[in-house]
Amino acid sequence: MALTKNFKNTVAARVQSDPAFAQALLDEAITLFINGEPETAKLILRDLVNASVGFEKLAQEIQKPAKSLHRMLSASGNPTMSNISAIFAAIKKKLRVEVRTEVVAV
Q1: Residue 87 lies inside a defined structural domain of this protein
Q2: pTM to 2 decimals?
Q3: Domain region containing 60
Q4: Is residue 92 part of a domain?
Q5: 19-40: per-residue pLDDT in tens?
Q6: Which of 46, 44, 86, 81 is nearest to 64 (CA)?
Q7: Do the beta carbons of residue 45 and residue 73 sit within 8 Å?
Q8: Does residue 62 form part of some domain?
Q9: Is a pLDDT exceeding 90 seen at residue 91?
């Protein structure tokens, strides 16, 4: 029988040890939101919250119940733009990164 690792644990360990990976996850979540794929973006964001700031600390920081945050970032969750903005800001602060946008003509 093959040994397997829990995917979420692997992501969390990689976020902790590799700042570029954490930045890439954040960039991907933002890109997915902007490009009309909020369900996938929320799931990536949920993994990133778990791996970085944690739901309890995030709840304190943005003054929302942790249970509500879990629901917001589920595949069927429906967070407001102000909640999404607050979540992104908290993750940016925790990861100590800046997010820049770039318009690319297609």
Answers
A1: yes
A2: 0.84
A3: 37-98
A4: yes
A5: 999 999 999 999 999 999 999 9
A6: 86
A7: yes
A8: yes
A9: yes
